[in-house]
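Sharing a chain and its predicted structure for anyone who wants a worked example. Both blocks are below, sequence first, tokens second.
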Amino acid sequence: MITDGTSEVQGAFPEGPYAGDLRRIGEEFGLGEVQDTAFLAEGLMNRNWRIATSTGVYALKLLCDVPVEIVRRNAEVLNALASAGLPVRAPVNTRDGGTVLEIDSRNYLVSPWEQGAHVEGTDLPLTEVADLGALVATIHQVLGDQDRVPLPRAQTRPHVKVTSPGQAIDKADRLLGVIDAIAEPSEFDILARHLLEERKVLIDKHRACPPAEGQTPGPFGWTHGDLQYRNILRRDGKVTAVLDWDRIAVKPLGEEIARTAQVQFGGERGQFDLERVAAFVTGYRTVMPVSRADLVDAVDRLWWKRMSDYWILEFHYDRDDHGPDSLMEPSERLLTWWTDRRGEVEQAFAAGA
């Protein structure tokens, strides 16, 4: 969800079958009369709006990418996290006590609106970077506390699949075939074709480097799953809300540490801010211990995952979802930069260990 300082479309829902839903949403969630809406255009997955009503201001989400039963479970988790003092916003219940409102085939979730700004990690002072690392560790701690959070104990160590170099090249070739079949390719298609050909060369050069498949070392447990800066609100140097808990799952904790650092500290600019990566990891380790070997393993696995996946292009060509399109070029630049500096990146992720 996007707040202050972002582009908005004022006055109504975007064109589509959703405009007639506003009255029902106001009634069912007890929001009063809906007076104004603002479409939040920067969302990458679900569709989000800010709505002003006679009782206050709220965030409205149309669920496009998450099963409803998972959303309902996660709503209970958010209630527990809020009670534990973490900066989250528990969803508003409907008058029947539910958290999701279904209208025809559309499912809506409403939360209280939180003021704040989405700040890229590269723009944060180092002290706030370290504080963010400590907050992520605290989230992991509380998610793993069955006395406070209604999630089952994470007892089975995750089994991680690894895409082989051959499989990765085959996936690239399939996407190249899709692009070649386009009668009038766009600029995006032409660039995607070029980047896919470059990726194949890079994979072939490093085909001896995939990590081992199977159970990963190090601590594991329940994680947020998508701790990017768009899902974190800040005000006056503090995190006021962690948003979009759609992807809560049991994963290696090192995986979330590595992925969060990637998307927070330069992943969309084509290179890491290694000083901030080190501060973030050090902040995490002030709350929860993670060994150097486990951190290095996690970042090495993330590097290969980025080498061997094409999720942005799969969204574009397989799902006709163009939300992440803007990430394609910087993601490829990051991969090339990272590949040339793997040792430096591993040192930053192992800071203080």
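Comments welcome. Residues 1-13 have pLDDT under 50 and may be disordered.
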